[in-house]
């Protein structure tokens, strides 16, 4: 920031002023001591002049007094110059101090405004985070509701389809010879299915499974089956999903391979709906 060089400059100026003040005080002390020594010397010379017999003329004494007076005046002039320079330095130091005070006040004001702006932005960010969390929870809740509604609609349609198939089977004439209850015969299709899977590509198998699990009117209808949106995009914690258990049940004699594979595909209706759309 700009206040760093100014603060260092002010510190250097203060150190220089303190050094000059000490130098001036030492110089003034020396001048005072010199004046005192000159005064003592003058007093001694006066005493010597008074005590000694008149060996010197009055002109010599006056000349010496003039020299001493001239030296005294020079020392006093130097003392006045030093005092003037000291007063000027004090005035400059006061100006620099006022400037430093103004800069400190401006810096404190700028820091206060910066802290207020930072606090305001932090409050705004906190409010926006809260709003985002609420919207995320609402979106996740709506996505779960939409998925539940789609699942219920799919189960209703499947129940209607089963009811229609059951009514169609009830209308068929029963077999004439009553047979004893025997276990359902195992069709040869499951035994040969692994061999077909080995020869058929996995994409075709997934497409057929998806087509089996989706109702026929939804596959052939104008609306494409839409999968459930991923709720992990709207939720922060990671939810534990139970493992899907594939229920294998024996096929009745009247059902084909398409109906027998329906319970397994019904559990995976959500991930295979997109595959059915790709197969179409």
**First-to-last CA distance:** 66 Å
Parts with pLDDT < 50 across at least 5 consecutive residues: 177-198, 252-280
Task: Give the tally of β-strands.
Answer: 0
Count up the helices: 8
Structural class: mainly alpha
Task: Assign a percent range to the helix content.
Answer: over 70%
Rg to the nearest angstrom? 55 Å
Overall mean pLDDT: 73
Describe the main β-sheet briefly.
none
What is the helix/strand order? HHHHHHHH
Report the β-strand fraction as a percent range: under 5%
Shape descriptor reads: rod-shaped
What descriptors fit this protein?
CCDC74A/CCDC74B/CCDC92; 0% strand; 76% helix; CCDC92/74_N; rod-shaped; 8 helices; coiled coil; CCDC92/74 N-terminal domain-containing protein; disordered C terminus; mainly alpha; 280 residues
Q: Can you lay out the helices and strands and say which pair or pack?
A:
Layout (H helix, E strand, L loop, with lengths): L2 H49 L6 H114 L17 H11 L2 H12 L2 H5 L36 H4 L1 H6 L1 H11 L1
Descriptive account of the structure:
Residues 156-280 are annotated as: Disordered. It is a single chain. This protein is mainly α and 280 residues long. 76% of the residues lie in helices and 0% in strands. The chain has 8 helices and no strands. The protein has helices spanning 3-51, 58-171, 189-199, 202-213, 216-220, 257-260, 262-267, 269-279. Helix 1 runs antiparallel to helix 2 (58-171). It is rod-shaped. The model is unreliable at 177-198 and 252-280 (pLDDT under 50).
